[in-house]
Amino acid sequence: MLxxxxxxxxxxxxxxxxxSLILSACTKGIPEFFELNPTxxxxxxxxxxxxxxxxxxxxTDVEPLQxxxxxxxxxxxxxxxxxxxxxxxxxxxxxxxxALDANEICLHGGPxxxxxxxxxxxxxxxxxxxxxxxxxxxxVEGEVGSSAAVIYSLGFKAxxxxxxxxxxxxxxxxxxxxxxxxxxTNRNSYITQSKVWWTNPISPLPTGQPSIVSLNQExxxxxxxxxxxxxxxxxxADKISIIGNPSYPTLFSxxxxxxxxxxxxxxxxxxxxxxxxxxxxxxxxxxxxxxxEFGLSLNNLKFSNFKNIKISSxxxxxxxxxxxxxxxxNDVITSSTNGALNAYGFYIENSSMNRxxxxxxxxxxxxxxxxxxxxxxxxxxxxKSYNNGDKGLMINNSSNNxxxxxxxxxxNNQLGIKxxxxxxxxxxxxxxxxxxxxxxxxxxxxxxxxALTQIISSFNLSHGIDFGYTFDNFSAQIVVTNNGDPLTNxxxxxxxxxADSNNNIFHENLIVGSNVxxxxxxxxxxxxxLQDSSxxxxxxxxxSDYPAGSNTHARLLIGKDLTTQFEGKVSxxxxxxxxxxxxxxxxxxxxxWIFFDNPFxxxxxxxxxxxxxxxxxxxxxxxxxxxxxxxLKSSDLQLYNKSNDGVNxxxxxxGSACLRSCNGKSLSxxxxxxxxxxxxxxxxxx
Length: 686
Prior knowledge:
Structural class: mainly beta
Number of helices: 0
Distance between the termini: 24 Å
Strand content: 25-35%
Number of strands: 48
């Protein structure tokens, strides 16, 4: 069931909604075959020498996947059903984001390339590009007897980006690239022509100006390589990219007021970068300012990518995203907003269908990450939000049908996660701990039909999960232990109030124990099926006896105590973090809030014994800050690898029937695979 996740991000798949297979029946016509010329260096599949084409015929070229979208920040129209399989799309039109129908989406053509080979099968073929930045896949296409192996790029490899395609020392300019194909049977390597794959102009970012600078050259790539100072930038054209060296932040001085985050006519605030009503942008850079209010002020954007973004020390909000859809934020870090009351890391308002992958938000004055005011159908995957002055995650005010999967929410000063006036949301595979209040709270009766799956909510100073007056929620594989304040004798594992808190359904395993007041604090007027104090009718370990007619069927496991089951506070040197000394540092000396030896580490409060002194935010007025490690110990006997029944590990045998723990559970019109998580970046699923 619940277990410590591996250090690599290989994991089981979660398909939160029912999917249909779309690949098996797709074929299309094959263009003219081309020869791939053997290299002169023969059998080295990792040949790093650029090919010399002077004495050989021109080899096969690497072509754009779509002729309508050959350059960086060019987009083409695709059926939504094929968004993760663009290589199966025949000729597509260039994208007009304002002319899409309900079954269409726009895809970024820049990184998508293809090579048609003269091989009739993909067997025995291994391939990579010289710069080793892209993922590739091979499909056999065409009719029997005239088929060809066609090799397609799928996008960047992990930890690769547009920065890796730019020559920093010459120009700046595009780096040449080529595809190497190695045939493991004939032991030959074949290469395409070494060349530049895009023609976008690359220009130095105009830094050092006394006032905000307009970037208005469509399809330009602006590049900054090193520390620079600026008074701000405004993006005034589509298809603009801004690339910075990830090792050097662009520093912003205050200058004069240059923006309004409400995008009204009055210019009253100071922003590092503003974009309003633009599409097809690509940004990857670091921003820092102790004087400016907003890092990225973004309004009415579509089909834009924000990758490898680091924003720190702004007074108000690191990222303010409004009225925007179909954008992707990947590997984004926001930290240390320090001024106004609403000093958020991420603030997303009235923005839907966006994707947020690998997000870290730490030490912000207010919330780490907030979706608000009708922000619908967003996906947040792999969120770390810790040591913020208010909440780690807020889903608020008619923000519906959002999915948050793989979340680590710790040491926030008010609470971990709040749902307010929002319905049909999903939270899965989350660890919520050490927050100075409830781990999860549903503030109003307007927050309903939420799915909570694979949740650990422990060591919070109030309730583990506070359902309040909400109803029609679905929970499965829930752990609520060690919650509450022993000094006030307050805080339970699960908490529900009144007759309005009805039909909250629990399935699979409910694991409780060591909560200060009760494991289940349930109002007698509630019709959830759970019983006050005992949780089940008998309260026995492994029991699932509930009143007749109850929709709750969870198996209760009692008496758990996780005090020593996590790795906990770090007392050795974290070699990836620049601030710690054997895991410790004073708040005033802490400059590295982000980087750790493994992704399950966060900053929290130092403690000698894990009790109330460990809850909440490390601040200038607290004691020392300590690195916390939220991996379950491999020696843990309570949760680690206790799949299916919460007691034993289930072993899957290849080719056998699917385990019961793999079966989906129905929630309204959704089928949820409770014990799995989506593999992001594999170009499968939705």
